[in-house]
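Feature request disguised as a bug report, sorry. It would help if multi-protein outputs had a clear separator. Right now it looks like this:
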Amino acid sequence: LRRLELLTAEEAAQAQAASPLPEQVRAVVDVLAGKGSHASQALQSFIQTSNLQLYLHITVYEPMVQKHLESLQSCYGNGLEPGALQRLTNLLLVEGLTDIQQKEHDILQVETTKGLPNVSKSIPLEKLFLPLSKGSIPPRISVTVGMAGIGKSTLVKLFVCTWAKEDINRDIMLVLPFTFRELNTYEKLSAERLICLTFPHITEPGCILAGAVRTLLILDGLDEFKTPLDFSNAVVCTDPKKEIQVDNLITNIIRGNLLQEASVWVTSRPAAARQIPSGLVDRMTEIRGFEAAEMKDFLDQMFLNNRDLSSQVLKHIRANRSLRVLCTIPGFCWIAGSSIAYFLKHCSDQSQDAAVVPRTLSEIHSYYFKMALSRNWLEKPRETLRIEQTVNTSKKLVGSLGRLAFYGLLRKKHVFYEQDMKAYGIDLSLLHSSLSTRLLLKEDMQTSTAYYFSHLTIQEFLAALYYYTAAKRAIFDLFTESGMSWPKLGFLNHFRSAVQRALQAKDRQLDIFVRFLSGLLSPQVNALLAGWLLVKDEHSGFRDQAVGILQGCLNTDHAVSSRAVNAMHCLQEIQHSDLAKAVEEAMRSESLAGMLTPTNCSALAYLLQVSDVCLEETNLSNCLTYNVCERLLSQLLFCHSLRLDNNQFKDDVMELLGSVLSVKDCWIQRLR
């Protein structure tokens, strides 16, 4: 009202002329004047309210929104690759997180589900915050999940850019994007201060706090938040001006105690999204990975000036089922594509023995690191600076980054700040080097600078490199950073400790780390990185014993778990494939009957994911008993086409199969 008093007569006249509504209402007042003073007073009150909203809209909201649009356009720009957009304009509409999404590592999720979605419903991006039907209301809390590197932040950028151009969701007056990377830098905030600090041009935050304008809050990257959200014990706060702990602020916004009129959109990796109670989520969507044509387009964009190279890389990816599945994730496809292309361009420089096309995770990442260390990137010509002059500096940097990566992994920390860098002895001046910029990305924010690894697997590979190197001289358990533990001497003891830790971890976040640690013992990886990051033939004498430790994880009388399958992946990384080859050959010749011991069941579960024998149909005819069925049950869930004839099944087995078919996570489409 005070603001209205300051309006000039000319501004008031312009505001009045902008809408005929008040005149129409006055006509209604005249008609209703004889029907009682209450109706007349109510309508007069409505006129005053309408005028107030109109004046505020013209004099306050519109200029503020215009400044906000200009600010978002300058911050987010138009730097989106056209090829990346089509996949993100349609999201999968899901009913909630599956068990595998809540419990497994991102890479294991992709491998188990073969990179294929288990839902058929989708929703266009422009309808993400609209009601699904005429009778429903718009969602208040929307959650979009996606694996590391699949494009969650790119999706947010796409939405904000499109909205700022006023192409979609014109009913939303303000879109306020926040990242958990930036929220990590604050200890306490109020809802009002959160808005004012991030968007200083919003001079009237009260209109957002009071719900006077429709607002969308975007909270990007919940998996990067430093504090777990605790909805059970969070302190209730309804005062938008009261400063509280940032995690409590987020829980109160999601619960609707603060900014209750605003819509909220949270993006997250699946495992972190389970922190939000399902009862609070009105709509959940998922970002799908690449389809075959999209993968080809992506690689063509990577090698824009060399289509022959793009075709060769794609041919190799398609020839390896496991690699093809993982490359449905754009972030991993970039790493794999770069590594394979580097190999193809330089294999003539290697001896015949060393020239093995990269297939495993460890081999892919070893080529990626070798490419980074030699500064021989595909899009740049060979630099004249001699490689030898930078090797020692690079080793030191990789060692420091490895320690940061390892202890970050243990703490589930994937974003780091300047104080973290200094604490781990990382020279910030070296972070501008060619090597560093390929491993670590930098984001300048209002209050600080954030650093994060270019993909989750880069952090895990660096962590494994650090552990592998440190295990040679470590006296105490490396998983205890303080060093206070029982003495633990020798590489094998440390290797066994890492495997046990991974088996015991409830969140499964050490599974890929252990795969890389196993892979560093393979002769192929050692040959690649010898002289760079590894010593030639180092630990080769421990390889057989490490194989024994991993095989010990397979021999169980219980159901085959994803832990056993991951141990099989570790054996492949270490280049011990005898067990898998024997079971695969038996599958080809349909002679599995009588050989499905607990260990072989683990190998079979692994082959269900990676073998081309199971690509079109999984044939388990004439080889299953009740005990074998019980062991394999959790793995059979993800077979699209399953052939089980001639197994002499009795009622108890049929009950087991019935229980599988009724599970939410069941992917079986054809059963014979």
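(second protein starts here, but nothing in the output says so)
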Amino acid sequence: DTACKMVRWLSAKLGPTVTSRFIARNLLRLLTSCYIGPTRQQFVPSSDENSPLSMGNIYQKRPVLGDQVSRPVLACLVHVAYLYGEPVLTYQYLPYISYLVAPSSGAGGGRLNSRKEAGLLAAVTLTQKIVVCLSDTTLMDILPKISQEVLLPVLGFLTSLAIGFPSGAQARIVLCVKTISLIALICLRIGQEMVQQHLSDTVRNFFGAFSLLQELQDQGLTAESLSSCEMPVMEVPLSDGKLLALDPAVLMELQKVFNPEMAYITYIPFSCLLGDVIRTVVPNHSLVEKLASVYLENMSPKSLQAISLEQAPSATGSDQDTRGTEPFSSHHEDSHSGTFGSVLVGNRIQVPVDTQREGLGLLRLSAGTDGFIPSSSSEENALKHDLPRSTHMLCGNWLAYWQYEIGVSQHDPRFHFHQIKLQSFSGHSGAIKCVAPLSSEDFFLSGSKDKTVRLWPLYNYGDGTSEVPPRFTYAEHKKSVFYVSQLEASQHVVSCDGTVHIWDQFTGKLLRTFDELDSKVPVTAVTTMPPPYHSISVASADSVLRFIDHRKPGLQHEFRLASGVSAGLIRCLAVSPNGRSVMAGFSSGFIVLLDTRTGLIMRGWPAHEGDILQIKAAEGNVLISSSSDHSLTVWKELEQKPLHHYKSASEPIHAFDLYGNEVVTGTVANKIGVYSMLESSALPISTTKLSSENFRGTLTSLAVLPTKCHLLLGSDNGVIRLLA
């Protein structure tokens, strides 16, 4: 239960692409595991049992143990579809189902393995869920696909004389009951005229199995007579001149499955559903009728009596007559038996008063013997359960991007930038100076020249053209905000306009401010320490680095990083991911490395010829710096020579962020470049010029969302855009 809740919460939080690639893919794989092994394929014992099949009707899905195990998995899969809409069902689940049921190629075609067998059961169960959730138009659009890629392959396995099931006849019976209940569900949804057009092959293939077995029996080939035969597979000529490969063990399975009882519980409801149409759809209807009547005659009179007693209370009127015990007396006379809204009681059609009012979706199928009694709507047995209109429905650019993403392999380490516009965030009236995604990637912070910090949601919304308002605006600053970030250990926001503000991201309450005592030396750079540290390092114009902790007054530490005028101002700070060293970049191109545990300067070196614009630290003691001399350089902390040195052709890289082993850069000319730290080439792997329809204004700040593979780009006109 808890796991289910967490998966649902994550599905909404992670957004459509990550959810589909990592959560839905694994849930689909899990679904197969729910049906592996003979024990999972046993019918769940019900309280009053005549025989395992005639209990319940074909619409009333007779649950097996695997169905109980798979319920939470299915619930989570349907929840993802509720969040992101029908495309999830048609573009992700259906292709996976057709992959599960595709006939296996290669030498092992003779016998299924237990995973393939479980896959077939999972596929049919999931298809049933999908059909219930699809709207009428979508169902009609993809019906040929369901028929060709799901139903016919499943029936191929089900009726094959050469392919054995590892769990024997039991697995076949379960698959047979599930498949027939799925076909019946589709028939109920689309009506009898459509069945004749689209599903006649499917129904014909199913009932054809009875004829095939009958023909083999007429030739004297039964499982008993063949058991003495040594040959594992033999060829048998049929009346239409074809040769048929046949495995005696499989024949035995089939005779257990397609017996008179199966004929009875499948043919009678179908003849009621389809009316006279069944004569044209099923050429061997007379044989199946005969088998069904054989089954009825063999049932002892006692059990027949029990059935009629069972049915008596289930009739909606008082006119219950003896026809309940003779299914064949009535279904020839009624020609309109397949119409929507009519109700089967046993095998008799009854149109109750309340179906007109309740409509189709509320027909609930009860568990009388082939009983079909409307009662209040129940989620389990509804024929149609429309997906609610969610605000996160995939459409437009989001849909196009999502379709591309679910096709990408999960292990692709590269950052691909397609320049697909997903969302715009407008609200700032001045240029964006900094953007900072929160670690969970469902919100981000932005600081601007308009003296405010805003918190924005990153959930998918609309078709890519929509503009999202901020969730919260912090307006306590007096000057332009040049730094904002989240202090992860305490979940507070740190922002700076020359004075550092520490405030609560949930309430917006200011917790503490910090500014230099001497107003002539303002704060020039700030950075937050990684968790579990609560400290903030602040650099001021006199080249002093101070550490403060919002939980106690005063300073923690104070270090002078440079003396004399030559080094210039500290432009930017970065902290290594483990929190052990702080790097400061000066306006003269100098970088100083400080050990936070000892307070000693480990190294200071002239890294660039121009002003240092930005520094970032990465795992493995690596730091990356960009400068106004057009260069981007990758350094190892204590090595003299740089690991990589890149040159930007036309303009300096004033904003960059890291994605794995790649550096994603942005320049004033609105060019996005991707550099690899694994390759020695000085040129970027890819360069993209932002088009004016996707991005207006001049690029001022950039941030990568590493899990979602998106880019946040801030511009000088106050609008932030999310691109993929």
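Even a blank line would do. Unrelated, but nice: The domain at 441-656 is CATH 2.130.10.10 (Methylamine Dehydrogenase; Chain H).
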